[in-house]
Amino acid sequence: MEITIFGKGNMGKAIGGNFEKAGQKVTYGGRDFKGALGDMVVLAVPYGAVDSILSAHKEELAGKVVVDITNPVNFDTFDGLVVPADSSAAAEIQKKVPEALVVKAFNTTFAGVLSAGKVGEKEPTVVLAASDSADAKKKLAQALEGSGLSVMDAGSLKRAREMEALGFLQISLAAGKKISWTGGFAVLH
């Protein structure tokens, strides 16, 4: 599978590394990326940068799996999210690109956990995935087969709201030095 990742930071590289480990072809791009988009597109950028990417590639995103990893944290106050309380970044993205298959994933895991393939000393990294498209979640799981990560279906796209709240809590704890940026929440199943 060909995967385009917008974002070349820690998260983009950690996610891309797992796709590459699973045998996928990964292309990295910035906000001004001009190449052809892959079958799957990962938005590994701050939430504030998403609109310009969606605007520039709206037609190309139709029919593609779009993976939103953002946590729409208010970085001015670090005390809330910048999306409506009854919505999520993923839901807002889905409204802007209605023909895309939006999946919320990777936002509840830190880059170190994705790179290591485990949370803490031994718990395997589980990627939660929420989407209204069962096929899109299945494609994400298939694209990661062989990476060492597992994907757990977290339900419909409306579950992204709770996932973003969990991501925000985890970021807040790490920023407050209560947990490590290489740790975080583990899903035991």
Outline the secondary-structure elements.
Elements: E1 2-6, H1 10-21, E2 25-29, E3 40-43, H2 50-61, E4 65-68, H3 89-96, E5 101-105, H4 111-116, E6 118-119, E7 123-124, E8 126-130, H5 134-144, E9 150-155, H6 160-175
Parallel strand pairs: 1-2, 1-3, 3-4, 4-5, 8-9
Antiparallel strand pairs: 5-8, 6-7
Largest sheet: 7 strands, mixed
Quickly give the structural class.
alpha/beta
Task: Kindly report how far apart the N and C termini lie.
Answer: 28 Å
From the alpha-carbon coordinates, what is the Rg to the nearest angstrom? 15 Å
CATH class: Alpha Beta
What helical percentage do the residues reach? 25-40%
Strand content: 15-25%
Segments where pLDDT lies below 50 for 5+ residues?
none
What general form does the structure show?
A: globular
Average pLDDT, rounded to a whole number, is 94
CATH superfamily: NAD(P)-binding Rossmann-like Domain
Please count the beta strands (DSSP E, at least 2 residues each). Answer: 9
- The helix-strand sequence is EHEEHEHEHEEEHEH
CATH-derived architecture: 3-Layer(aba) Sandwich
Number of helices: 6
Whole-number tally of structural domains: 1
| CATH fold-type name | Rossmann fold
Strand order within the widest beta sheet = 2-1-3-4-5-8-9
InterPro entries: NAD(P)-bd_dom_sf, P5C_Rdtase_cat_N, STEAP_metalloreductase
Protein name: Pyrroline-5-carboxylate reductase catalytic N-terminal domain-containing protein
Keywords: Oxidoreductase
Pfam family, one: F420_oxidored
